[in-house]
Design brief:
The complex is a heterotetramer, with 2 copies of chain A and 2 copies of chain C. By secondary structure, chain A is an alpha/beta fold. Chain A has 2 domains: 2-184, Thiamin diphosphate (ThDP)-binding fold, Pyr/PP domains (Rossmann fold, 3-Layer(aba) Sandwich); 197-323, Rossmann fold (3-Layer(aba) Sandwich). In chain A, 36% of the residues lie in helices and 20% in strands. The model of chain A has no long low-confidence stretch (mean pLDDT 98). Chain C has 2 domains: 2-325, Rossmann fold; 328-362, no CATH class. Chain C is globular and about 65 Å long. Residues 1-15 of chain C have low confidence and may be disordered. The chains are: A alpha/beta, C alpha/beta. The complex binds thiamine diphosphate (2 copies) and magnesium ion (MG) (2 copies). One thiamine diphosphate sits between chains C (84, 132-134, 161-165, 192, 194-196, 257, 261) and B (29, 58, 60, 82, 86, 89).
Amino acid sequence: MTELTLVQAVNRALRHALQNDPNVILLGEDIGVNGGVFRATEGLQKDFGAERVIDTPLSETGIVGAAIGMALYGLRPIPEIQFQDFIFPAFDQIVSELAKFRYRSGGQYPCPLVLRAPYGGGIKGGLYHSQSNEAYFAHTPGLKVVIPSSPADAKGLLLSSIADEDPVLFFEPKRIYRSVTGEVPDGDHRVPLGTAATVREGTDVSVFCYGAMVPLCTAAAERLANDGTSVEVVDLRTLVPLDEPALLASVEKTGRAVIVHEAPRFCGYGAELAAILAEKALYSLQAPVCRVTGYDTPFPYALENLYLPGVERIAEAIRSTARAG
Amino acid sequence: MTELTLVQAVNRALRHALQNDPNVILLGEDIGVNGGVFRATEGLQKDFGAERVIDTPLSETGIVGAAIGMALYGLRPIPEIQFQDFIFPAFDQIVSELAKFRYRSGGQYPCPLVLRAPYGGGIKGGLYHSQSNEAYFAHTPGLKVVIPSSPADAKGLLLSSIADEDPVLFFEPKRIYRSVTGEVPDGDHRVPLGTAATVREGTDVSVFCYGAMVPLCTAAAERLANDGTSVEVVDLRTLVPLDEPALLASVEKTGRAVIVHEAPRFCGYGAELAAILAEKALYSLQAPVCRVTGYDTPFPYALENLYLPGVERIAEAIRSTARAG
Amino acid sequence: MPGLVLADRAPAETTSAPIPEPAPAELVRAYRTMVFARAMDERCLTLQRQGRIGFYVPLQGQEAAQVGSASALRPEDWIFPAYRELAVALVRGIPIQLLIDQFFGSGGDELKGRQMPNHYGYRRFNFVTASSPVGTQISQAVGTALAARYRREPILTIAYFGDGTTSSNDFHAGLNLAGVFQTPTIFFCQNNQWAISLPRERQTHSTTLAVKAEAYGLPGVVVDGTDFRAVYAAVAAARQRALGGGGPTLIEAQVYRLGPHSTSDDPKRYRTDEELNAWKARDPLARFKLELMDAKLLNEDQDHALWEAARQEIARAVAQTEATPPVPPLSFFDDVYAVVPPALQEERRSLEQLLAAGTVRP
Amino acid sequence: MPGLVLADRAPAETTSAPIPEPAPAELVRAYRTMVFARAMDERCLTLQRQGRIGFYVPLQGQEAAQVGSASALRPEDWIFPAYRELAVALVRGIPIQLLIDQFFGSGGDELKGRQMPNHYGYRRFNFVTASSPVGTQISQAVGTALAARYRREPILTIAYFGDGTTSSNDFHAGLNLAGVFQTPTIFFCQNNQWAISLPRERQTHSTTLAVKAEAYGLPGVVVDGTDFRAVYAAVAAARQRALGGGGPTLIEAQVYRLGPHSTSDDPKRYRTDEELNAWKARDPLARFKLELMDAKLLNEDQDHALWEAARQEIARAVAQTEATPPVPPLSFFDDVYAVVPPALQEERRSLEQLLAAGTVRP
Ligand SMILES: Cc1ncc(C[n+]2csc(CCOP(=O)(O)OP(=O)(O)O)c2C)c(N)n1
Ligand SMILES: Cc1ncc(C[n+]2csc(CCOP(=O)(O)OP(=O)(O)O)c2C)c(N)n1
Ligand SMILES: [Mg+2]
Ligand SMILES: [Mg+2]
């Protein structure tokens, strides 16, 4: 066990993978000499060489296209997109190619790779350094989508993603890259994909969240505990495949659901969670489902603290959901 | 009034716009000399010249980028993407630029244009000529999303979209381009954006759908009428902005909701509809919400008739929703 | 090298070792493959008109470019095709039964009926499964070349694409990456003069397509794509250079699409009979046949026999495909992921029930 | 023309009319703008270090390229900047108060606090609002040029971007479209040798960046971007050609980014002091100052006064911005659409209630 920040845990996982699997190759903008703009790849080019930690030209299209070509050949590439906001030039490669290669070839060409990108707001990044674009990828069959919320999960989920036989989009909550520290197991620590974590048990209201929203939801839950409301906080960790049993079990227990994410509400990931509840847990629901999300606007700069769900807004939503019905 | 197919109605709307607004410019691949691979722009270059109906090189990035530049300058460009499946090379321009220009400039640079693309399955188009990608755009604040299901709506919604001050993605159900005909008003026929149409009234179950699914849902409703189940079919027509009052009013009346679309279920547009019901109509719901959609796989070729919702699958879902609870 | 010219002002690189002329037997084999491809094409266009297959992309006019380029490769080289590379597939030795099965989307299709006709690929032949969005294979081919070099495996990758596809994002990304990393990659552009209805000169304002190589610091060559030997020589030279560490090459093979873009297309809407006829006079098959006859490697009887053999083999394959049961109805749930995840299993189960109840039919 | 060379083997096009040298008053005005830009830069770097603004992108080293290019334009020409074009904005006459307001995201910001510092734009100055994703402005600039020509308005558009951005999709798409349609567009590449930590020679294997023009059939020129006159002449010539119907030009201005990529960057991690110092010796301000002093257009006292005036004006603007109230809390719901749609009105109302109740604070 070592006390690490989230970004350090990512770095450790990458180092572990580079050390233990010669097929692992990192590529991206500024990841080598510079160690990544968030230092996630710090020291790795120095230790593993420029053939394994590759500084690429400024082309997300090329980064993902080349990574796919490597994966087809049998390597385990880990491309980095500098900010999730800049993933769109690679969207065609991700959605048309990466997600569909295994399928369209009748299983001949699996394409396992882990595409890493920091996502989310709260760093005064404005429109183009703050977005949460997970829903686009969650809607794309063939991709897996993983978002850690703690240093230990960051390492464990990343190592599981690298070992996975399918393409994984691994989105890192940059806002808590350094603000959260925690004990991280050394060595080959794995957290299985597809399993949610109940980070706090409770009986009155269930809160479903992921990434940088998890600490905020936990804080809101603690606040409400003082008022006598028992809140269960479920960190989904893997958005695709979703741990649906965990979702349903929690709502069957509490009868009330609050869903929290940073992305805009309309057609966001939370819509799917709410839809599943409307389909499969309707008779358990004692109160309307409630979503606490980014508003349906682009991400603003000066007013990001109003735009983003904060502890107060989350707590208020839990409170009224607890009372409703 | 003239009896037209859906694709002819699109052509008439474009012709009307070219005739009445010198700012209207069409651009895209094979739309000029060739008249479009579906003949939607047939005859327009001949009549309005190559400066107004522009055959472009093979670059969706360039088509949309250039169209944005035209819109900034005050024109009303109508770019065509040959198949909605090929929109992804332009995804960055659409999501990062088109959707955000007005916002990021504090309102200085509106960017009104209508991006047309045929979408959907049922034409034996396989993975890359069949997709329904509306959810990606519906999740992107700043864009409007419109999908007609009849010739009259195709013309009326398209003319309203061209007159709109915001960017509109106008997706045309290619499967019913020619199979559906109907009376279409001549001249400047408009159907306002943001209003759903109740294409069939009913009291037992509400069915929400759009595009090529509308005729199938209507057929399913007719079938069930014989069994004594009264089905209301609501054609949403505008996905963004959604006519939420129409959604809620219908479910308040029937207490039961079936949602139908071709796109994969997970995080599809139907998830948002179900989520709104779980938030705002929970106490009206007498049965679980039911989604009938494409399965969560890429779009298959040989088995597309099993993949796509058909009348039987829709009717079965309505039937069991009518009985549930 | 006959018919081979260096692109307008492209950095000229000449290979040291001379490229050997193909042996007579190789020439005849190449011709036979070209005949075979043409016969397949004719047959498939008919099958499509008869409604027996849903769609087809013909290659007529491009046989010499395809057979010439593919013949200069070795089986371990990875091919990244577009959708028009039937003759490349035949050179690679992909059994026509597999191809016909794919065109029909029948139960014999190793791709399991997932894709439209012409969008095939077979891992054991190092022939990567094609997709429809143009250009995406180009940057992938560069990645595979990087991977092979990383493993110190002496192979190259070749990406096939058309004139229109030089405008794609991946053309730019792929060639730039290849230049920076000097990957063993050949970019083989079949300039068939048209991208559906857009003529080459309105696709781009550059003097040639090969000259675009210079934007990435690569050598670019133009070759007469109706001339088997010229294409063979250009590709063999590029291969030699690439494997010698000399980096990638862009080759523009000038050809003509004699048929429609696809069975959905009507070229009469956008091009003239004069143009078509001028290029028909340069039919690569006719040219190659004359050359072989001049060299006494072929006579009319032998030619006739080649066509007959091809037609019969194709007919047998079609018959076998049509006797094959269709793809199993629930198979479309496979291969989305390595293992079908629980939610998708549930979807499969629900369809299985609908099928069992007779509510929906395959 | 001093310092101007045609790109390696690019199709040379020479303009007929000679480009007039800027008048002495123009030269002095240009120098004053360069001083102003440098002073702004220094001040803003300090403001960022003090935490008074959140972020900043410096332009030091690129002043001559920016002032030289922008001075050769007319106010009706549309500018499509990247994020580093402060001196271009100053030439255009954008009041520094507006810029400082934008950097602070204060209530005076005409962009309403929507964007990070440096991502501004003002319609009335024909200076389009910048975004972060690199390159997207390039194809947009081509579309605007097409629109202007369609309206028979004699203007041109100019897109600014860096060396790294030549690898973007929109560079390829934009230059190709411009070539095909021969739009009145200047592609102005400030090759400052680095894209964050990637040096120019690992961005692309081409001999120059200007040579990429040939891939699109355009003229490409390389110009010494530390030389005001050379840049001015190159852009003026390109403008003349474009408005005469001669089509677009790619100009590569060779400069150096003397500072960090942004305030988040530490260039010591990836480049040497030797390289930096070599380029510092070519500081465009120092060079221009010497030239003006040689020509007796400037003396030390006047130079000093220019710096003082600049610093004072900037200080005044900062003070005024800091006295401005913040952007109104609910304003971020505006401008998503022309009219706030009902669902968004509902979201706004819900936040309004939370604010009114004191649950959340601005
Ligand atoms: C990204 C994308 N846009 C549009 C299309 C539709 N389309 C299919 S083929 C084609 C023309 C391709 O021309 P070219 O590259 O010259 O190849 P050719 O068909 O002539 O062999 C177009 C526009 C597509 N497949 N992909
Ligand atoms: C599409 C995209 N990918 C990545 C980034 C992150 N990024 C910001 S600036 C930059 C380097 C740009 O280099 P260059 O074009 O040379 O311009 P310079 O900053 O040197 O002026 C990168 C990689 C981005 N803004 N957009
Ligand atoms: Mg072609
Ligand atoms: Mg640079």
